[in-house]
Write a structure and sequence with these properties.
Helices cover 44% and strands 19% of the residues. With 192 residues, the protein is an alpha/beta fold. α4 packs antiparallel against α5 (133-142), α5 (133-142) packs antiparallel against α7 and α5 (133-142) packs across α8 (167-174). The protein is elongated and about 60 Å long.
Length: 192
């Protein structure tokens, strides 16, 4: 296999196992043909949407990596903010991969980690996980002290306006996070 056939995202270990030498990978980095995105993880520029590169690379190293918070709000068109990096969640206690400069790592409880998780294909054969719009709204309300109340309320306002969204579906997800449930119910009562 040649270095050009490794795909849009690959690890150095995967390249070596495919018969590509380290010096060939490093040579492609030096030539600007590929980019190092994290320790031992590389991306082929322009094959993936830049919004997915960090998540796809993180998923190679930590399959449970999931887009969350501001990045997920933007993905679901619930925010106009331009993220400074990718927000990626891992179960609390799982060590984040090293060397990812444009990633904000978040540790979420293992007991609720899979609530609202959706898988999407971002390139042929490359799947990543993103929290649903409902789970993301619950998370920004739950972490309002860090994310800001204006972010949470604006996301909820936008979500309510989208045809087909049901407050009942949001409350089902919120039920998994009892501390936040009453806050979201009150906000929905005001908006509706």
């Amino acid at each position: 296999m040649t270095p050009a056939e490794l795909g849009p995202v690959f690890t150095l270990q995967g390249a070596i196992e495919a018969g590509v030498r380290k010096d060939q990978v490093y040579g492609r980095v030096a030539a600007g043909d590929i980019e190092r995105i994290g320790r031992g993880v590389y991306v082929e520029p322009f094959l993936l949407d830049p919004a997915w590169e960090s998540l796809a690379a993180a998923t190679l190293l930590r399959p449970e990596a999931t887009m969350c918070l501001t990045s997920a709000l933007v993905h679901h068109d619930l925010s106009d903010e331009i993220p400074r990096g990718s927000d990626i969640a891992l179960p609390r206690g799982v060590r984040p991969p090293a060397g990812f400069e444009h990633v904000f790592w978040h540790g979420f409880s293992a007991t609720t980690f899979d609530v609202g998780k959706e898988r999407i294909e971002v390139h042929s054969g490359i799947e990543v996980a993103v929290y649903s719009a409902e789970r993301t709204i619950v998370d920004v309300f739950r972490l309002m002290h860090r994310e800001g109340s204006d972010v949470a309320y604006e996301a909820l306002r936008r979500w309510v306006r989208i045809r087909g969204n049901s407050p009942a579906s949001l409350m089902r997800v919120a039920a998994e996070f009892p501390v936040t449930q009453s806050r979201i119910r009150t906000a929905l009562e005001i908006l509706l």
